[in-house]
Design brief:
This protein is 47% helix and 14% strand. By secondary structure, the protein is of the alpha+beta class. Among the domains are: 149 residues, Ubiquitin-like (UB roll), CATH 3.10.20; 123 residues, Four Helix Bundle (Hemerythrin (Met), subunit A), CATH 1.20.120. The structure holds adenosine-5'-diphosphate (ADP) and magnesium ion.
Length: 726
Amino acid sequence: MSGNTVRQQAISKISKFKTSSPALNYKETASGTLFGANVFGLGAMKSHLPKDVYKSLKKTIDGNQPLDPATADVVAAALKDWALDKGATHYAHIFYPLTGLTAEKHDSFYSPDGEGNAIAEFTGKKLVQGEPDASSFPSGGIRVTSEARGYTAWDVTSPAYLAETTNGITLCIPTAFVSWTGEALDTKTPVLRATAALSTHATRVLKLFGHENISAVTSYAGCEQEYFLIDKNFFYARPDLLNAGRTLFGAKPPKGQEFEDHYFGVIPSRVQAFMFELERELLVLGIPVATRHNEVAPGQFEIAPVFEGANIAADHQQLVMVTLKSVAEKHDLVCLLHEKPFAGVNGSGKHLNYSFGNSTQGNLLDPGATPHDNAQFMVFCGAVVRAVHKFGGLLRAAIASASNDHRLGANEAPPAIISIFMGEQLADVWEQIKAGGAKSSKAGGSLKIGVDSLPNLPRDAGDRNRTSPFAFTGNRFEFRAVGSSQAPGIALATLNTIMADSLDFVATKLEAAVGSGKPLNTAVQQVLQEVYTEHGGVVFNGNGYSEEWHQEAEKRGLLNLKTSVDALPQYETKEAIAVFEKYKVLSPRELHARYEIFLEQYVKAINVEKNLVLQIAKTLIVPAALRYQTELANNAAALKAAGINGDTSLLQKISGLVGDLHGSIAGLEKAASQHGGSSLLEEAKYFRDSILPAQLKVREVVDSLEGLIADDVWPLPTYQEMLFIK
Ligand code: ADP
Ligand code: MG
């Protein structure tokens, strides 16, 4: 296709695509030597640090001892030597502000020595603490502008690494980001705090089951990241993708995902080249990739790194998102992480596989080989049931964003109702526990629920349920409602907090019963029966997309918080404030700040979209429509002059739509000139109820025009082009 519009030029460039990334020689580079090559992990620490310092640091990393400040100088010196050796010139404190993104503050290792030379310097103080200007990050009122200082504090539990670009190497140090008052301004700090609380109460339960050697418990997370890839030239020709991350216009392509021919299909070679390089980079950063494949929608793919401890998994997940984007760029592609970049085809999620355990007892959500292990498993599983039921609203709030709203509840992603899929066999065991524990098992025979008599449990839930937001998958839960662009730390901190609460609850009950002389068997049966009777309503094994479920869920009293604006006020409930405060994860002020920040981001996101809709409609679509209208009018006039009785119905249609377009633009402008009210919540509601629908009206007209206007006049790359040209 040739022509002069930006779009036409973009398309003509596609055929000239050549990868700009260097060829990789896989035969010469053994993958064994790639893993963690750029990471100052335990191995590097061991060889670069004095024995006692290494030992002390290891204890801190394992969660068994606070950081000894005296070691910081030694570690800093070793880190510097290691990094300089590998060619680094700069170091950066990496942090995760509440925008959900990754932020970094770079500094040079070198400073002038006063004699015309430069020396490489890196002290313990510089390692431990940084001071980025916090005023450009959201604080939700925690930081008044006169106190703009924020601190980044070294997170010793997440290893430092080298970020390598063609132009230089930077030592990256994962940090927590806090205000000058010590309040969390990031997504990492709450994960660390909540994991500590989870460990305390999980340990109590383990003690009841007679374990003596118990190491710190952590949660594990493995994120399945979905994303779209499109050619870079299309991206730059779409102001909406460029600035809002999703298409605000675009008619459904003649071919969509109806053939389901993309899912697990052959990965296109250009994408494979991208994936190989992506995985190599991740490997070097110490992030092993478990799976990769095509997803349901055309142009959609998935990558799942192997699960790790929550804090590192969250950091690594942020790094995966950054690396996806940077490697795509090298291949002249753009990676879209938005939850719904294209209407009419599936959106993208980030299934968060969640479990918890430690190095001594293993995965505590793994039903064991013996009935005794299974009883312990049932206690932990019961704690999950209680947590998700009691705090479903908080889980919904943890995944709230303007972009994830486009995905949740649609027939492709879990509904906004938070429920648990258990699988038939496990659900049956639960029903029996509820009924008193003495009944026949599903497999026949009789069983009595108790520590020593639980039946063997399914090690694989078998029938995977794709419609449940929170599904048991054999030895973990899969929180499927998390959005593709979201910082996993928010969901993880919430999960660990509500689990700490539930484990505290069951441990307290069991301790009291056992303390008063009851056998553990009896105590476990009683507590589990009580928990399931009260909270079993959250378990649902059916089709989460069905209308009946929506009605049934309402009967069961489960929340159905359809939009972020419905969900975010959950942060303001008594229960939320209490649970976050009790387990020292977020103070009421920190929690309230989050509520404000997330609402504000919701409004800002839609406001940008609204501006883009107006700009694109007025400067790209209206002119194209008028041009085509003129062409048709000229044609009609010419035919008339020649005495030919032409069909003018297309001209009529276009003229009608041009009128509608002007009308819908005026409608959106009018809506934009008004306000929802003085509170942030009212404003957010207004954006949801008035701005979004007015935006959609403009889109409807534009998408109709796209189906009629001559292809060489249409100014935007189409869905067909973006999704299918690879
Ligand atoms: P699916 O079959 O759901 O598509 P994938 O194999 O794509 O699963 O991804 C599963 C993810 O779950 C991976 O990131 C994997 O490392 C992670 N995972 C596996 N076991 C656990 C566990 N016990 N706890 C947390 N995550 C886990
Ligand atoms: Mg998967």
